[in-house]
Amino acid sequence: LVALVDTRSVGDTNYCYIQQDLVIPLSWYESESDMGHPDTLKRFIELSKNQYPADHYALFVLSTHGSSWQGLGGDTRS
Fold first, then answer.
1. Of the candidates 50, 56, 54, which has an alpha carbon nearest to the alpha carbon of residue 15?
2. What are phi and psi of 24, to 5 degrees?
3. What pLDDT is recorded for position 23?
4. 2-32 pLDDT tens trace
5. Cα separation, 14 vs 8, whole angstroms
6. Given this model, what pLDDT does residue 22 score?
7. Are 13 and 31 in contact (CB under 8 A)?
8. Residue 33's CB: how many other CB atoms inside 10 A?
9. For the chain, what are the domain ranges?
10. How many beta carbons lie within 10 A of that of residue 43, not counting itself?
11. Distance between CA atoms of 73 and 12, rounded to whole angstroms?
12. Cα 15 vs. chain centroid, distance in angstroms?
């Protein structure tokens, strides 16, 4: 799994490779990316496909309007 993560802080955009219990930081072109700009997604896809070629790809976009992953998957029933 390759991920591009940007949380609430400035300068915290992280590009990483995740395998089971291991997270490996990778080089990204800037410390703070505009996650709403189409070029950011384009760069992420191009770089990931070049570094990790595969027969099949999937893209998951998780967003909570600036709350990052902390706002995802809340349990509202219990």
1. 50
2. -110, 115
3. 92
4. 999 887 788 888 899 999 999 999 988 888 8
5. 12
6. 94
7. yes
8. 21
9. 2-71
10. 17
11. 22
12. 6
Residues 6+ apart with CB under 8 A from 15: 2, 3, 4, 5, 25, 26, 27, 28, 44, 47
Q: Which amino acid is at 69?
A: W
One DSSP character per residue, 6-56 reads --SSTT--EEEEEETTEEEEE--S-SS--TTSHHHHHHHHHHHHHHS--S-
Report pLDDT for 43: 93
Distance CA 35, CA 70 (A): 16
- pLDDT value of position 27: 87
Token pair in block for residue 69: 């992953």
Q: Which amino acid is at 23?
A: V
Q: What is the pLDDT of residue 62?
A: 77
Supply the mean pLDDT for the chain: 84
- Is 52's pLDDT higher than 70? yes
